[in-house]
Amino acid sequence: MTEMSALLEVMARLRDPENGCPWDKQQTFKSILPYTLEEVYEVADAIDQNNMASLREELGDLLFQIVFYAQMAKEAGEFEFADVAAEISDKLVQRHPHVFSGAEIESAEAQNQAWEKHKESERQAKAAEQNRLPSVLDNVPLALPGLMRSIKLQRRAARLGFDWPSVEPVLEKIEEELAEVREVLAEGGDAHKLMHEVGDLLFACTNLARHVEVEPEVAMRGVNHRFESRFRRVEELAAQQNQQLSEMSLNEMDKLWDQAKAEEAAIRES
Length: 270
Description:
The structure is a single chain. By secondary structure, this protein is mainly alpha-helical. The chain has four domains: 3-95, Orthogonal Bundle (Helix Hairpins), CATH 1.10.287.1080; 98-129, no CATH class; 146-214, MazG-like (Helix Hairpins, Orthogonal Bundle); 218-269, no CATH class. The chain contains twelve helices and no strands. It starts with a helix and ends with a helix. The relative contact order is 0.04.
């Protein structure tokens, strides 16, 4: 028995109506979705930390999620894991004719263009099946994190020329959106208007990231890590001074923050 078939057998046993695990038996596609998303982020975390042992473990956890979905689909008579594997294999062969069919691709950029052209034909075919007009924005998943989805939407629209010609108009747009946030705050800070205007500001910042070729999700993970690391150090410094952050002024905490940043910079330069 191969490792994959053994995993499929384990999953089937866990879902066995009579002798399976009570928790696994009661799960549905929707109930395990949050766990799937969590596993994806744990894979990303392992990659960010360059921890190969952790990555191996997290990839296994993510694979288990796929096997879980496939087992439930098999029970419902829809499809099974072999169908999932076959479909992605066929799709990859179709999308890589330069590898599997002798077609010539001059560069990675040419490959990207061919890939997008093929996906566009798939979107058109799906729209025809649904008896509607195709859109360049079709198949951008709603469940994607907001920053990631905004980037994908912007890139799709940019293919049709709906894009700023350079980074300068994007910076001006950010300043415009920030001014509108300030205006709402000056008017009393209506919650609905703030939600709208802050959303516009974030979307504009995401547009900036795209124009300067920075992945916003990666950038956010980086800044979150820096903030966490520095703030933990601020807590340590306060404890060393026998102080509680809750009892310190913002100015006092800022001094500790600056010290934490300086220590971080010294470590990078050493």
